Amino acid sequence: MKEATFVIIGGGIAGVSCAEGISFLSPEESIILISSSPVIKKVTNLKHLTKLLSEFSVEERSPDSLSETCSLLTVINDSVTSIDYENKIVVTTKESIGYERLCICSGASPKLIDIANPYVIGIRDTDSVQEFQKRVCSSKRMVVVGNGGIATELVHEVEGMEIVWVIKDNHISATFIDPGAAEFFQSSLVKSDEDKTAPTKRMKFSLSNAKGSTTEAGGAALGPDWHSNVDLRGILQQKSTVTVEYKSEVKRIIDHVEGKNLLSEDWPVYVELTNGKIYGCDFIVSATGVVPNTSFLDGTGVQLSSDGGITVNWKMETSLPDVYGAGDVCTASWEPAPQWFQMRLWTQALQMGTYAAKAMVMSILGEELLQDFAFELFSHVTNFFGFKVILLGLFNGQGLNNEYEILLRVTKSSEYVKLILKDGRMQGAVLIGDTDLEEMCENLILNQLDLTPFGEELLNPDIDIDDYFD
Ligand SMILES: Cc1cc2nc3c(=O)[nH]c(=O)nc-3n(C[C@H](O)[C@H](O)[C@H](O)COP(=O)(O)OP(=O)(O)OC[C@H]3O[C@@H](n4cnc5c(N)ncnc54)[C@H](O)[C@@H]3O)c2cc1C
Ligand SMILES: NC(=O)C1=CN([C@@H]2O[C@H](COP(=O)(O)OP(=O)(O)OC[C@H]3O[C@@H](n4cnc5c(N)ncnc54)[C@H](O)[C@@H]3O)[C@@H](O)[C@H]2O)C=CC1
Predict the structure, then answer these.
(1) 171 alpha carbon, closest ligand
(2) Residue 407 lies in domain
(3) Going by CA atoms, what residue is nearest to atom 28 of ligand 2?
(4) What pLDDT is attached to residue 60?
(5) pTM for this structure?
(6) Does this complex have an ipTM over 0.90?
(7) What are phi and psi of 319, to 5 degrees?
(8) Of the residues 374, 397, 414, which one is the last residue of a structural domain?
(9) Do residues 73 and 130 both lie within one domain?
(10) Where are the beta strands (DSSP E) in 321-371?
(11) Residue 242's closest CA among 178, 169, 154, 183?
(12) Exposed/middle/buried for 198, CB within 10 Å: 0-12, 13-18, 19+?
């Protein structure tokens, strides 16, 4: 039987950063990484924008490429089928592997609205993007269900199609942004070019009187800009049109025969929405979140959280002895720092993988572990509708029970800045466009300075606010 001091399940960002972390801290220990996917995901071009915000590329590499940084690492391309935690053995389809410490980084899979319907697809890995591209290039209309990261990206990227976007909420991209930011992006939905103008709004208001807006296992998940090298063009010779169906869900999916009778239009498949409308389309994208890959743990009694993730404590330990978890597969179940919470994102997969490595190495050495600084503040940088989007801390007032103030500055088609303040102290920020405010906001959230004396000047575009804090 093969054996290693450290065994890792998963070749996504969490698993690979865990292997690299162990090799860095304990280069003389053996590591086996088992992954169902033949390629591994490696973080490259890491660029720190601030202490906690970082941008990076994610590359698909052959497992051999890891030998540069991890000399005692063996990568096995196989699927884990079960774990015998009492005897410290991982069972794959071909063999059994012994461990001293195990880290589960098996990621998540798309949670589809109808897993059995061939017209419903999800997007997660390279294979699923190829399938998506195949559908797009021969289609006129798709229905996109969901209002998170994938739906937001697709609606912007796909050309030459009619897109019907079905969302439960009353504004777009609700997983990430507030109604005000959604309004800022709204012009991008009609894909027109607007002039950049001077700031149109700069105001301070409390939430209550804010106007209108209150403010199983496939490959590893895709990397940033996954769509940039994929031709996502439908068969219509025009820009895509987007029809948003707000506050609605898919009530049922209707087959070709019944749908044609109901609608007198000929489409491969139809959806009936909870608002009573029926749309025919070529296919349906279910961008409705993820479900952690844990089926190989059935029968172990491992503690799972209500979202299906493996419960982990602040040391990334699961409820099974010497078994750790990191990335999308796990649910952070410790008392978080006031401005941190979990979202299933690259940055957190990287941070958790690296930190789990440290926790496992410290536990073997019997040394004390301290909580990582990365878990002090939620931070995320991404790109929506062609704009840089930075989210810091409680960027949507999460957990503040609507008891906060918003400072807002909007320059149409250029920037959207929203700061969340409670008792004069900054709790979170949404920075869209090239605002250059990320460092200041990060510092102000971390140091909890009383900002009452600055008032609205904090967002005065004519004042270099950094001068105040030098
Ligand atoms: C289309 C798309 C776009 C995204 N865009 C962004 C973005 O812009 N920014 C961002 O921060 N996040 C983004 N994400 C989320 C991000 O990709 C994930 O949070 C992150 O990659 C999770 O990494 P992970 O290592 O935990 O899991 P995964 O990447 O899912 O890796 C899991 C690994 O485990 C392996 N595995 C699973 N089960 C087994 C088994 N039984 N045996 C052996 N191996 C197994 C898989 O093959 C895979 O190698 C996006 C996700 C998708 C799908
Ligand atoms: N730029 C970024 O940061 C991106 C991040 N991602 C990440 O990848 C993962 C997968 O992305 P998404 O699938 O977009 O998940 P998500 O968690 O971002 O969004 C899921 C959306 O689906 C909705 N939903 C759930 N069940 C539904 C149902 N039955 N009917 C209608 N709507 C339903 C939710 O309300 C939510 O709007 C997530 O972890 C996400 O954070 C994905 C793409 C881009």
Answers:
(1) 2
(2) 379-469
(3) 288
(4) 87
(5) 0.92
(6) yes
(7) -80, -10
(8) 374
(9) no
(10) 323-325, 330-332
(11) 154
(12) exposed
